[in-house]
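Re: export button greyed out
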Amino acid sequence: MSVFSQSFSPCGRFLAAGNNYGEIALFSLSAALSPDASEGSQKPILNFTAHDGPVFSLLSTDTHLLSAGNGEISAWSWAELIKKVSQLFSKCMCIFLGLGKMYISFHCCDNSLIVGGGDNNIHIMDMETGIFKSVLKGHTDYIHCLCFKEREEEILSGGEDGAVRIWDSRTNRPVHCIEVFKYEECARPQFGKWISCLATDSDWMLCGGGPSLSLWHLRSMSPTSVFPLPGCQREAVFHQDLIMSVGEGPYVSHCLHGGTVKAQIPCTPSSLNTLALNLKNTEHRVMTVGGSSHQIDVFTNFSYRAFSLSF
Amino acid sequence: MRTQITSSATVMSSDAVKKRKPKVIRSEAGAPETKRGRAEGDQDVRVYNEEVELEVRDPQQDYMLYKDTCAALAKLMEEIQELKAGGAKVQSVEIEERRTQCSVHFITLKKLNRLAHMRLKKGRDQTHEAKQRVDVLHLQLQNLLYEVMHLQKEIGKCLEFRSQHEEIELVSEEEFFQEAPAEISRPHVTRDDQHQLTLARLDWELEQRKRLAEQYKMSLARKEKIQKAIEQKREYLSSLQPGLQNIMQASLPVQEYLAIPFEHMQKQAEVARHLPPPLYVLLVQAGAYGQACDKNLSVSISGDVDEAKALSRPPEDSQDDESDSDAEEEQQNTKRRRATLGVQLDDKRKEMLRRHPLSLCVDLKCKDGSVLHLFFYYLMNLNILTVKTKVSTTTDLSGAVSAGELLNSESLLNCLYASDHGKETPNPANRYQFDKVGITTFGDYVSDLGHPFVWVQKLGGLQFSSGGAQSGLTGSALSASHMERTMKLLRGRLQARLALHKQFSSLEHSIIPVSSECQHLFPAKVVSGLVRWTTMSCQEFTELGFVQHVLKAGLVHETDLFFMATVERGTARLRAAVVMNPRYPEVAPLFSLSLHWKGERSGRTDDNLQAMESEVNVFRSELQGPRPGLQLLTNQIQRLCVCLDVYLETESQVCDGSEGPKEFPREKMCLRTARGPSRLKPFKYNHPQGFFSHR
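Workaround output, generated via the alternate export path:
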């Protein structure tokens, strides 16, 4: 089993995780973190099959959980899920997003959903009506990851073709295109050119994948630091002044902006696919990572692994 | 007598008197005695009867006379004395006179003495007579008293006498008067007289009894006759028996010809009576199931019927025998050294584990002609059933080294139902019995006695409380409820094992037998090939490095079979460790992969190998094949080969920066070679189009 995606509930007390068999499991963080937690509280409170392909992306809005499967996006009501009812709220079949079993990632901002799919395009959907408003074309291969800069209202997308494109969400036009693999500091031809993780923090951008994980300054469009991490990084986030990234290798890497790897915290799965931070809830402020194992590691103190949830 | 004595005394005394008399009389007259005797009448005149004188004289006077005489005598004596003193001569007249007077006085004294004596005697005699009379009377009194007492006793006896007639139950008086004829009952007499009535009744009783005795004799005679007749008829019947037997024997060939095994079934029923109850239940239920649902099931009884009969004989005989044999044994023991404790314990163990002499043999035939023989035994003291198996096939099964364990009778029926190992006895009471004789586990004896599976107990209607749910059925109902499912499982097991056997023999020749129904699961051209297929022991399996996750998840049991498959293509070698549950194909085999190509990778370290493992382990339902799913294993192996092909061909070349042609040119059609963050390869084969895609 591989865990591909995670998402915390709006209240921050529950964690939803999706795996490669199309199942979504709901864990209760309050039960798992309580002082009298037992082995049973590390098991899901709800486990249901959402799609017939892997659930590569999960996203939480204020009221709903969105999950992406084989050519479809489903929405589940958090209120229902917390009551252990896995009733589908609505499903949107994105048939045109690829020939069936393609990889979908999305991001959402001010009521519209940004969906990147296997047809190499980015689609923007209005969440209330479910109508696709616009299409952003430009990538030559399927899209791995999406990111949104709130201040400038720009969409960043990274794809299999190795390019990071920046789009203006208001005008829906491409602004920049960075081909990371062309930069010698980052490029790692032995792995490929695909970009699998993107993260932004105002002016800074993290991207990695085939090329090494690198921190870019967006104004100058140049890489400032390259992180010497051996494997391909699959997800990276900014947190306070640290950069945390996960990928191949059973550890979470803590890196500094300067380019040094401060720490590598060991984890149970042999390689990690997803990292999530629960910042909405101060009580359950944890980091969870999941990868090619049925266990999802939970870090209460980000420096060491506390326990594992079992999918 | 006393009178006689006294009379003789008086006669004697009279004789004495008469004897003295002659002195006196002689001096006076001198008559002879004889004369006296003769002439009694004369004697009155002549004889001086002093006795008559006695009555006349007065005793007092005599006494005075005595005194006087004595005094006179004394005086005379004195005078004599004086005279003598005076010097008179002895022969003087005075002295002589006085002497004569003295003599007279002497004679008087003598007479007086005589009279005194006679008086005394008389008095004595009188007293004597009186006493005698009193005695006589006393005696009479005593006699009478004695007789009175005697009579009283007699009366008492008579009064107590219980005549036998009172013990005879007589009919009541009314009945008597009604039934008895007049000459016996004589009512005119008997109504008044109780004695007569009783007599009459007794008479009547006697007569009735005589009559009934007559009747009884007659009935006895009749009975004898009838008895003789019965005896004759019996003899006749028993003479028929051999004749019937001959007919039966002669009809056997006819029965066989007509395929009605009538006699065989009868014989079986006859023997079945001696079966112990669980085996009987099993026989009945299996026979019924065979008749109704499954024509290929047959049941038969084997074993020693005589021993079984001996077991069911009443225990008194055996007790006597035992006591005799015990006595003999003891005698022998005192002669020899006593057997050691261990040998005694051994004997006790053997006794505890004794099997009933009869056993059942159930044959399950399959369509291809192979037969599964099941032998059921009943352990009497432990009250459990055990089973031994044997497989006979039409073709010779050999040549598959790795298949050695498949049809092994020890493990053939392992885990027919999940976790039914058949190593321990399911009867909890046996624990206490074992403790007594020092058996620690039943598992040591299993190879000898057969496996005590739980389903075997259920088929025999034996229900033992275990941790699981109770079904509340017992006996035949329990057996019937399990029969169909168990028989189906048994047949399925045999077929699965035979299929595996065949598959193994071709796997060992590096050929993966894929049937035509399953060809659509795989592309036409598969380059990777199976090079080795070997069996492993549990020990070897647990030592492998890349299977630790399976062991940790608790998916490996001792009863499982372990194999190692090696698939090769070029320089790449893929090793697959297979854990096969005995319940294949219900429980799918579990594969763990390790690839040796430019380094060692396993499912734990390489996401793609993990994806390959999930292709064969998780998506196995696609690989089941046609209905009994017996092709699962071979399809899984074929799929592994296909996935290895895809893996090697889609591997990007530039890992170590080497240039040059790829070792494995891309031949498979894939939509995308890498998807998602974990860069998974497309392992799924789409059939008619023939390309590979991701799931």
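The CA atoms of residues 209 and 215 of chain B lie 10 Å apart. The button fix ships in the next patch.
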